[in-house]
Structure formats: structure tokens, C-alpha cells
């Protein structure tokens, strides 16, 4: 209720008592600002259609209450069309759960550890597809054991298969790396003391790596997937939320022989910095940092290392609310006869996020830059004086940026990103008219 004190959000994402060096959470649940359960429920019509415009501004003002975060994220990430009914969403959810289970069963047939409650942390095959007969550390399982396969059975099954095709080899080579990253992901949280939660994270990433052959798995994807496991109870729902997030970010992880996917965003960051702070850009170029590689981590995992777990979720949902496009569902969904084309009619501008509305004013064939680029630019802008005065090499740049961990304010960072975005668009438009 109005006037009630802000409630700390830490209790919803419990940290292990021995982990004393994690960043302090700044996000607080603020009555009248944070999207509450009641406000969320009143945003739906009787048939289930959502007035998304009602929620976007409130999310930007005060984030989302942790108890409804998962279901709100499903809309923000484009899992569901706001104009769908309860019945339509339930049918779609059922179809997606069945599809996920099918993919998971396909993976399990190839490698029986998937879905067993266990996961691997050492390679089981060589680069040329030969089974490794004596892996030192193979299975991570709970203390009670379980009915999952043992290492000998796994290797023997691979041997019995004979020659493996390239897709299977490439996938199997990724699985132990996923396992190693799963063991390191958000280990300060009590949630991941449970083996079943670690295994769920490994299973989702393994299935995703199987279906997305262009990207497979890259370090950092476990950091993006982890919150989905925590916020959504059903594993398949967590998978689809992660899959939708990867639709936005997979370009960052796609690598070729000549380039790394995130390089495109780094070049955009350089262009933005050159416009809004040319002196800083010139200084970074002089230091040999004109490629902006020092910002890779911030862009790849969306500031997961710079914020506490809770604050990073708050940052993400504000970003997604600001970038929201009500046609996101249709942009991601495969065209099928069951989709109602009539729903793709013109939307009120209030159904678009504030950042997206600014982009819509610009008539260009080029895709708009994501807000994450301007978030990083806002951090560089804030540290501009320090970087100009103290950075004498790239090591100094990295150290100065590493020192921001735990000190950033998510809402302030988003507001600064919007200001820089407007400034950038204004200058770019001015140049284009000259």
C-alpha cells in the first residue's frame, strides 16, 4: 500500500551464509512503484488478454515483484502474445512442453545422462569422435546415487554405436564444458545447493545446444539461463524463456573462422562512444582499446558480473520493458495456420517500450541498436574522467571497469542509457541531414 516501507528483495534469492563477498542488492520492492501481484492481475481482461501498456511503465519505475517475475518475463521476452487468451496460452504452453520433451528424449537416446539427474564434467569423446575409455571425472550426481547410467555404461554405449556423425560429435564435445560452467554458475545461491537444480540447468543447455547447431553452447550462456530455472518451476517453461532470450542474444555467441559474434555490438559501442564522448574514444584508441574488447563480458552476459543476482534481474526486466515490441511474439513464432493474423493489427504506441518508441521515429533500413550498447556506453561515460586521468594502458581500463562491480544502480544506468540514446540519435540525424 502507498506509504508502506520498501521491502528488501534478498530473501527471495537466498545467498549461502559463507559467501560474504557477493555484491549487495540495491533493489527494493516499493509499494506503488514495483509491479505488484494485484496490479499484474488487474491488467488482464476476463478472457486473459493483457493490457501490456499498463505494465511497461510500472516495470521501468520499480521493477517486478519476485513472486510474479517468471510469468511477467514470459510476456516481456515474447513467449506469449499479450492479445492471446488464457485458453490460447494454455494450449501453446502444452505444445511447447511436448516439443521440449521430444527434443530432450532425442538427446537422451544419443546420450543417456540427459534427463537422468546427473551431468558430466569431463569429455567422453575425442575431437575425431572416439570414445574416451577412462574418463577421470565423469558424472556429477547426488549423494544418494540414483538410477542414472555409470561412466562405463556410457562409454560402452558410444562404442556400440559405431562411427558418429558430425552433429552428434560436435554436440557431445560441448557437454562437459556445459557441466563445468553449470558447477560455477550462481554457486553463491542456496538454490544451487540442490543437485536437481544443477541437473535441470545442464539439461536445458544441453537440449539447446542440440537444436541450435549454429551456436551450440558458449561460455556465458549458463549465466543467462540460470535465472529462468529459478523463476519458472516447469523445466520446459524455463527452456522456452531462455530460448526467447537467446533469439535476442545469439548473434553475440555465433562465431565464424574470421569473427566473433559480439564484435558487431563492440563496433556499435565504439561508434556510440565516438559520438557522445569523442575525447574518451580517442583516448581508448590511443591505448590500443579501439576494439572495445574490454566490454565483452558486459555485453555477453548483460551485466551479470557487475550487479548482484537480484539487481541483474531488475536491470534485465527494465531493459526488456523499455525495448518491448508488442509484435515480438509474431517475430519469433514460426508461421503456422493456427496463428491469427488478425491480431497483428496496428498497436497503440503505449504498447511499445519507451526505448522502442524512440527507435520507431527513425526511418532506416538498419536494425536499431539494443539498449545494452547504450548501457555500456553510460558506464564508460560515468567513468570517463577516471579513464582519461588514470588509464595508461588497457590493464588500467579493465581494472577501473572491474571496480564498478556492486556499485552500479540499475535504474540509474537505464535512465542514463535512454538519455545517451536520444543524444546519439539526435547527433546521427543531424549528420545525415548535412
Overview of this protein structure:
The chain has 434 residues and is mostly helical. Among the domains are: 97-234, no CATH class; 261-332 and 347-433, Cyclin A, domain 1. The chain is built from 19 helices and four strands. The strands form two sheets. Strands 1-2 form a two-stranded antiparallel sheet. It has a two-stranded antiparallel sheet with strand order 3-4.
Note the main attributes of this structure.
434 residues, mainly alpha, two-stranded antiparallel sheet, two-stranded antiparallel ribbon, 19 helices, globular
- Please give the alpha-carbon distance between the first and last residues: 53 Å
Which value, in Å, is the CA radius of gyration? Answer: 23 Å
Largest sheet: 2 strands, antiparallel
CATH level 1 class label of the domain at 261-332 and 347-433: Mainly Alpha
Q: Structural class, from secondary structure content?
A: mainly alpha
- What is the general shape? globular
Number of strands: 4
Work out the helix count.
19
Helix-strand topology string: EEHHHHEEHHHHHHHHHHHHHHH
CATH superfamily of the domain at 261-332 and 347-433: Ypt/Rab-GAP domain of gyp1p, domain 3
CATH architectural label of the domain at 261-332 and 347-433:
Orthogonal Bundle
CATH fold field value of the domain at 261-332 and 347-433: Cyclin A, domain 1
Contiguous low-pLDDT stretches (5 residues minimum) are: none
What's the average pLDDT? 88
Oligomer: single chain
Order the strands across the largest sheet as they lie in space.
1-2
Strand content: under 5%
**Helix content, binned percent:** 40-55%
GO molecular function, one term: GTPase activator activity
InterPro entries: Rab-GAP-TBC_dom, Rab-GAP_TBC_sf
Pfam family, one: RabGAP-TBC
Organism: Gossypium darwinii
